[in-house]
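Q: Sequence in, structure out?
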Amino acid sequence: MMKTCHSVDIAMMKIARPPDQLCSLGLGSCVGVAIYDPIAKIGGLIHILLPSIKELGPGHSRTKFADSGIADLVDEMIKAGSSKSRLKAKMAGGATMFALSSNSPIASIGKRNVESCRETLASLGIELVAQDTGGNSGRTIYFDVETGNLRIKTVEKPEKII
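A: Exactly. Output:
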């Protein structure tokens, strides 16, 4: 069966079932969070831009933020037939992309995104089973909903699967 890769762009989330895959291109300081139910074979991917909706308030897309977006993705996966108790997560991204003063909030956005994703997953009771975060290189990720594998292509590094 042919696998179709559905692109998940900045501030978007999507859910898929096998044989389809989900992918996010060009994660820099953004974080891609892949959540899957290995029994129901339902997977979701969200492309996080910022740590918390609380920083900007209402009127913004909830999927732009780690705290609100991950919660919304989990809700959608449960509506699609996943069991919250079986959900597992993997994530990649959160790089430091700009050589700025370490005091600059922009310089630390990747790290803050990763921390917020971890905290949100923990608060929802979802185990983070693998991650490839930090550094200073962009990543492209491919999430295989069938296997739960997250394939990561990083600039000038060998491809890895987590």
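The beta strands are 5-7, 13-16, 21-27, 31-37, 42-48, 88-93, 127-133, 139-144, 150-154, 160-161.
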